[in-house]
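Q: Structure tokens for this one, please.
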Amino acid sequence: MVTAASALLASSTHTLRSRGSLSGVPRLRLRPVSPGAGALRLDNFVRRCYVTNVEADVSNVTKEEAFDDHPSLSPGCSIPVVHILGDVLDSSPFALHDSAPHPIDFEELPVLSEGEQHMLAATPAHPAGLYALYASYLFGNLVEQIWNFAWPAALAILHPSLLPVAIVSFFGKLSVFIGAPIVGKLMDHFPRIPMYTGLNAVQVATQLISVAIYALKNMGHASTSALLLRPWFIALVVAGAIERLAGLALGVSMERDWVVLLAGTNRPVALAQANAMLNRIDLICETVGASVFGLLLTKYDPVTCLKISCGLMLCSFPILVMLGQLINSVSCHVLDTSRTPNGESICADLLDVRKIVQNGLSSIKHGWDEYKQQTVLPASVAAVFLNFNVALAPGAIMTALLMHRGISPSIVGAFSGLCSVMGLVATFISSSLVKRVGILKAGAAGLIFQASLLSIALTVYWAGSISQRTPLLIFLASIALSRLGHMSYDVVGTQIIQTGVPASKANLIGGMEVSIASLAELVMLAMAIIANDVSHFGFLAILSVSSVAWAAWMFCRWLGNPTDEQRELFIFDPHFQLRAT
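A: Here is the predicted structure, written as tokens:
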């Protein structure tokens, strides 16, 4: 006590400046002083005392400094903010063994009841920020969906061949496959709000460039081969690829990073509800976007429709920027939290034009390594395998099959509408499943349900009777109901990956997963081109069912043989709690 007090009094001769963190300051080696010196310096203090709230500057104290050489304080010198209390620091030891009596405060710790724990799990960490996120997601997604229907419709109408549309789509998916890991790594090291604003600006700029090309060029009189070699068409392809990549990066950042921070990783029900809401908004925007552009095409020519969509883009950009700032401000600036150290130097290195190829290849390799090492790899791979189902799902191949079989267009339209409704219903079912059985069993239930119904549809198709009314209805109903399982796992699987991937790698691993999913779509498109005859639909159907069944088997095997790391990660999941008891 004498040594510490004398050290404090000696250090008070320096200027008293701050009370900040002392990290990085060398440790002080206090040498005992002579009893006489201590008595002279402490003649005005009682034996037992303590000093608090002292603001002292120790930045200039050397590592081996001894305090016994300092002179005594002058009589007029005072110590600011010194509180002297008697009988506070007792020299008697505090017994910590089992037989020792414990203070009453340690015996009556408050413990949440089961109902309170469920209520906490369903309460978002930043509810106001989530509402602002929903608004931003709605505005951005609606404009993007309108654009996704606008550009292929305009390009198809302005030029009779489908090859330009196919080329733009192909290079869009190729840009996602190559660029997603690079952009994901960049986003993990760049501040969230500036990155969000920049990506929105890039997306709007590329859309405006595409609109200008569509409006200024008359493509109807050019041959297909001549069209593909023109510089403005190459610029159109590049702009479309950049727009697709920017839109994907925005989606990954919101669905894999922002929503986790706003809802809370340790609040599974709230996170499930937030994921379900984002999927719900996506489905609604997809339906509304197609309807709005279809309505515009019935009244205006394609160029005018593109100009209207251009006006919507320009109006939405400032709204999206303000909503991004609003999300951060109402959530206590949680989006400003740093994810990785040395982010600025890594970003500068990634943006170096001289090393763009080297950095690109390095980012893809790094993203692949991180993707393979993630704890929830089977859940992510299962989501990728679902992308191989292109035959037994609503889309171009299914529509071509039904029209080839002479099915009424009203039935085809009703089937597409029913699939959309099932997807919307699944967003409500998924959060309820998570609340009842946990995210792991909910994911397994969605995959098994989808694989079972697609197996029924495949059996009915190979029976060769879908030309008849009853087998046809069973075939279509099985596929439509399978969308319940598909969309349920889409929501639940996203949450599993959100829980297992740290925030510092969320964009990198999310971008890598989307890149692999894009590669799966490219492979299935190639398979569809090879098996282009409708008679080969059975082969594509078998491949689709096999991919879904493999995803279900892999996920259930992973669930049945958990590792210690998996148990620790999902310690509050009912599946592991029941196994523990």
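A few notes: The CA atoms of residues 375 and 562 lie 11 Å apart. DSSP finds 22 helices and no strands in the chain.
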